[in-house]
Amino acid sequence: MLEGLSLLVSRELSSSCEHESKWIYNKFYVIELSSGKRRLENGEGTFLRKSSKWSDAIEREETMQGLSDLSLSQADQSDDQRQNGDHSNSSSLIHQIGRDISINCLLRCSRSDYGSIASLNRSFRSLIQSGELYRLRRQLGIIEHWVYFSCKLLEWEAFDPVHLRWMHLPRMTSNECFMCSDKESLAVGTELLVLGKEILSHVVYRYSILTNSWSLGTAMNNPRCLFASASLGEIAIVAGGCDPKGNILSSAELYNSNTGTWVTLPRMNKCRKMCSGVFMDGKFYVIGGIGVGNPNELTCGEMYDLETRMWYEIPNMFPVHNGEAGATDTPATAKAPPLLAVVKNELYAAYYAEQEVRKYDKERNLWVTVGGLPERAVSMNGWGLAFRACGDRLIVLGGPRALDGGIIEVNAWDPDQGPSHWSLLASKHSGSFVYNCAVMGC
Length: 442
Hints:
Blueprint: H1 2-12, H2 23-35, H3 44-50, H4 54-61, H5 65-68, H6 80-84, H7 99-107, H8 114-118, H9 122-130, H10 132-140, E1 145-152, E2 155-160, E3 165-168, H11 176-180, E4 184-188, E5 191-197, E6 202-208, E7 213-216, E8 228-232, E9 235-239, E10 252-256, E11 261-265, E12 276-280, E13 283-287, E14 301-305, E15 310-314, E16 339-343, E17 346-351, E18 356-361, E19 366-372, E20 386-390, E21 393-398, E22 407-413, E23 423-429, E24 436-441
Antiparallel strand pairs: 1-2, 1-24, 2-3, 4-5, 5-6, 6-7, 8-9, 9-10, 10-11, 12-13, 13-14, 14-15, 16-17, 17-18, 18-19, 20-21, 21-22, 22-23
């Protein structure tokens, strides 16, 4: 039997361009071989033989609790019998095919399955928690984008838009001051950072998908809130915001998730708070916000070039949005920062008052309407609505509110498919006000 399995695995590995659905079978072989078990002949084995399509296999996977469980805590519950059963040459992972091919198979597994794979034995657990698989996936361009969001204080969920799975993260442990403070979030590398204020200082909480746990992260060199931020692979940049005394900042910092450190960058040309940040064409942009001594929104943007370490101001990059100047009595401080997202190096903005999506024309420095927002996308001056890029699609997270808590909906649109046609990916009863949202690609 091993001879047949080995032949199948080697054939699957012969071409990196073959359809992803074939890797579903390797995933089950990884689990079966490493457990030292014969292939199941009944029950689950029957459906494996019948599931010839990726979509069929995924649908049935969800009935298997082990494969749909986000938590890596299973790995810590392995009993002595399993540990004693580890192969003596466990460094090869699946000793019948060797370490390199074993890792090649694991790279093609969905990352939602890594918790179950880590529970097989100590070698798999060590590999998963080392982050090596995610580094290799990034090098090969194998990236899955998940949406992380919070609709309840200190509670976070994750949504897999490919397999349409909802997952709960462990509850954050912090004091009431942090719970009630204004919080910012960003996803970088394999980490989700949530930044807020406790009684005496600003703090950073770090969630790691490698361990499925929260811990205190490294504080910024210059703590702040209401800042612009964006991530690119293993790095993220934050800029502007307010310091603990309420002063509006022009400073910026770069975070490296591999080292867990912050590095101070050159200052922007203007101080600004309540601004938004994006990466586009490998450069970091800060857009919108409120400056010093002027309660109105800034219309200029700034671009930071990582190679030259210089900031460049872009006049009139983001004219007064959500109604012309003077058309609304809502002060700038009551409005949400600009709702921005970048897909394939193209910048989009959600104009919530007009219920429009606009695209930035880089050559002409102006915004062009390309469609509308989902009908049930509700916000309070932009607050409570998430507008994000998720791979090649735009994602809107939000929904109608009701006395019983409302409904959270995830809508997606691929701009390459023409005028905005939003698809409802999933919905469920939940708090429909989105406090924080970040997209992690790894």
